[in-house]
Fold this protein.
Amino acid sequence: MSEAPRERDVKPGRLDADSYLELFSDLHPPLDRHEAHVEADRCYFCYDAPCMTACPTEIDIPLFIREISADNPLGAAKTIFDQNIFGGMCARVCPTETLCEQACVRELAEGKPVKIGLLQRYATDTAMAQNKHFYVRAPSTGKRVAVVGAGPAGLACAHRLAMRGHEVDVYEAREKAGGLNEYGIAAYKTPENFAQAEVDYITAIGGITIHEGKALGRDIALERLTRDYDAVFLGMGLAGVNALGDADAEAEGSLDAVGWIRDLRQTTDLSTVPVGRRVVVIGGGMTAVDAAVQAKSLGADEVTICYRGPKERMKASEYEQEIAKIRGVTVRYGMLPKRMIASGGVVTGMEFERDGERVVIECDEVMKAIGQSFTPEALNGSGPSITLERGRIRVDAEGRTSMDKVWAGGDCVNAGDDLTVTAVAQGRDAAESIHTMLSSGAS
Amino acid sequence: MANLSTEFLGIRSPNPFWLASAPPTDKQYNVERAFEAGWGGVVWKTLGEAGPPVVNVNGPRYGAIWGADRRLLGLNNIELITDRDLEVNLREIKEVKRKWPDRAMIVSLMVPCEEEPWKKILARVEETGADGVELNFGCPHGMSERGMGSAVGQVPEYIEMVARWCKQHTRMPVIVKLTPNITDIRKPAEAAKRGGADAVSLINTINSITAVDLDNFAPEPTIDGKGSHGGYCGPAVKPIALSMVSEIARNPETHGLPISGIGGVTTWRDAAEFIALGCGSVQVCTAAMTYGFKIVQEMIAGLSNYMDEKGYESIEDFRGKAVPNVTDWQYLNLNYVTKARIDQDLCIKCGRCHIACEDTSHQAITNMVDGARHFEVIDEECVGCNMCVNVCPVEGCISMEPIAGVDPRTKKPVDPDYANWTTHPNNPAVWAKEAAE
Ligand SMILES: Cc1cc2nc3c(=O)[nH]c(=O)nc-3n(C[C@H](O)[C@H](O)[C@H](O)COP(=O)(O)OP(=O)(O)OC[C@H]3O[C@@H](n4cnc5c(N)ncnc54)[C@H](O)[C@@H]3O)c2cc1C
Ligand SMILES: Cc1cc2nc3c(=O)[nH]c(=O)nc-3n(C[C@H](O)[C@H](O)[C@H](O)COP(=O)(O)O)c2cc1C
Ligand code: SF4
Ligand code: SF4
Ligand code: SF4
């Protein structure tokens, strides 16, 4: 840091309009009918298909691909939605390379799995474009369920409950439903406001009322929900972000990556989003990759992901790391954050320790993406305590919490892997468990 | 390098690959392009009698079925014989033969079932200098409604009669092209031989409807709301053609009668199989129509490569070699016991072998072993049927291996000696014989 203090370079509009369009367009353009048929022909219709086992929602993949082959994309969409009502979003955001496509036998055979994600998207897009709905609600049961959080877990739960004939009220702290689909997932994975279109598609079943701007712990209490409703599902995700601790500093340009992405996702004009010329992203997960890639796509010159561990331990998949590199992001491993360097209340660099040596990277912004955390205050401030485990809500195999009548699922529980698809599976399964309880008259 | 040249009925051609009588051989332009590409000969598109030519439909005339990736597997057509003027065709045939003297030029014919028209047309063909004629007794649509084509080919007496007329009225070799739309292919072949034909060629196309349009409820191809059956050809018909060729090749009545093999020939291997069953030339239509004339280059290279590897110098070295091995079921060795074997290094664990065997065969392949996904043959159950081999997506992953010793399924020792059904204790004929003795 011997150099003289330099101009901090953070500004919007680094690129021309076309570049924004190109860089934030669909990561994987959708397959057209011809491409979908060529790809579907590659599927072997495996018995007890490994891809299906690898899917957290257990979509019948060989069946839906066969339906595409047989020119029945709507049938394929129904096969997908039967298991996963967020089939459209999952087709876009699932790390298929570590899920279904990793398990595909053609990965073993020739290193080129069937493009399950893209085929899933072809089918679900076809159904959604035609506004084709497959589910009607069972006759009303007269039971009412409260769902907290309108993310994938909460809405998957709400949809299944509505289908079973229950009445659902969803309480969502933010202005819009969708959870991280709306506020977190990288923009280039879900362009054209897909998240809201999907929320509308899912809630079109009826029987689901979303109350936006209503936070548990702030506007409503768990006690009241358990009193007023026959059952409660908590799908609140992770409201907190992990802190850098001593290495952090209160300075302009010290950013929480999740919050930064949230703002980015809500921007309609990307050319108004400021970004530093040199950006350091601290972390090793999807959030780190997404923040880095989007910073780069906004026109940042040098973007470096600094992960504390070795390459193999990085949570972002090999493929995600590959995307980062293709997009021009530098990824450095074994970088232990030591100290944020600021001058005059503004970030100027970040100091790391690597193999016992001090490494300083000069930068205009530091984005912290070192994980999110569950904030239990919303629960415990408002009602009797719910048992936590490793900082998140403890649930059993069906999603039941330690509290009577209360279920939970998604990122806020201890059982998942912080993926959209897992949240959907848990929301759906909790709904079935709630339904079983409500039908048995035990409530 | 192997010599691919052939002499079929004394007609020489640089290789055994001929184009069958069909659109690829309907005019000089096509045929010359074919010869430039390397085809050994052609059977000119079927000529009819002088006068106004036949007319074709002006709507679609083809239907098809496809495999994965829209690979064309079977083609269906409702085209008739040539719709061009006889004189134009004859003039072109003469011209092409003059320009390409080393290639086989056969002319396909179909005229009404009376002596005079045949006599007339044969004389005209002779004038062209063509090498031979092929009598089209096969076309299954349109012409058959007018008492020609397969309407003749389905009545052995007519075949014999027309073949005899032709032999009387021409010095050219006469090939009779057979229709497969018949129960026993040996009968028309025998009739052709009795009539003095020099050879048979087969198969012509098979009656077919490839699809039904589910919006208009009409067969495809649909012509203004209606469709009629067509003739089926292409890779899908090869097994039928091979079987029919083998029947004629091993029938004592027709054994040794020269055969030109037709039906689904697409690669050198298909051609070699027809030759192994006794064919002296092969004819191709659909493959050329699908991919163009260039495919003959692969056929020539592949066949000569195969022959070099095997040490065959000419086609005659392996022609007919498979005929003695085509037999009746009753003579198959019942003491030959095989079991499926899965090469675990090649297996990609798709489970298709398991479910095929489990649901539809003999429950002889595992899917789980000690809690892990694992596919292995259970010798106690395997009957050696080969179904798993056919459904496995990995070539060579499952093989059928003969066993010796005790068969774990029957718990009986495998008899190393040949024994067939004719002497099997379960055969009622054997009891009857024993009772009589
Ligand atoms: C930047 C980023 C990128 C990601 N990329 C991917 C990806 O590509 N693929 C993938 O599979 N996963 C990805 N994930 C993870 C994925 O988004 C989550 O696993 C998933 O959204 C979890 O769903 P959820 O419903 O449990 O929680 P959330 O989606 O977080 O939804 C929870 C909802 O509850 C609301 N809420 C919170 N507290 C309260 C309260 N007190 N009262 C009322 N409402 C409340 C929140 O506002 C939110 O709407 C990513 C995550 C991040 C942060
Ligand atoms: C469009 C078309 C027209 C045909 N026309 C005739 C014909 O005029 N005369 C004839 O003997 N065979 C005709 N055939 C049959 C072919 O000569 C051949 O016997 C048959 O297609 C099988 O060979 P393949 O499988 O190689 O196509 C025709 C086939 C097709 C596809
Ligand atoms: S594993 Fe691959 S080939 Fe098999 S069913 Fe799944 S997608 Fe198809
Ligand atoms: S050969 Fe037939 S019986 Fe034997 S394992 Fe294969 S499918 Fe089953
Ligand atoms: S069909 Fe072939 S690849 Fe598939 S499980 Fe069986 S042996 Fe393995």
